[in-house]
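pipeline stage [seq->struct] | target=Dihydrofolate reductase | organism=Ectopseudomonas toyotomiensis | residues=192
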Amino acid sequence: MNPSLIYHVTSSLDGYIARPDGRIDWFDSLRQADEEYAFQYFYSGINALLMGRGTYEALLKRGGPWPYPSKPCVVLTRLALPRAADEIQLTHCTPAQAMAALNEAGFQRIWLVGGSLLAGNCYTAGLIDEVVINLVPHLLGAGIPLLATGMERSLTLSDQRRFNSGTLQVHYRVQKQANVPTQIPAPRINVA
């Protein structure tokens, strides 16, 4: 059985996950106890994390203890970065290769922590199975988009919930595209 990749992310109402400079201070102060409980429930149901370099560096800049303890975290990067915790593996590979390695290690529910570029690449590659978005009632006007790249794909609403802060969480399942071979028309030959 292939592992599930879940893109669980917080977004402004206008579709940005961070300010243009990468800061996420606009939603940290709004989180209420019911949101924290929902996040802890989600976190307890995953067994590994997949993260992009930009998100990892933003977490390093924030300082403090590693915010995702006791779960293996694969960070996709070409750079030699410091490891913030023992459970972090810094590697240079494709998202598909990382997912294959996590599957081989027995992990079945993987949280795609971010960021926008990695999420777009995973989405385009057909790796994302679920999308959980916390829509914060805040308009940024500009910033880092939810997905940097991607292809058109339909989603099926699985669940929704409203938190005391006014944040709306929507949970979608990604509809997998059928692998239909493209028919190449035969060349026309004019017989004169």
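stage status: PASS
auto-comment: The chain has five helices and ten strands. The beta strands are 4-12, 16-18, 48-52, 73-76, 88-91, 109-114, 130-136, 144-145, 155-162, 168-174.
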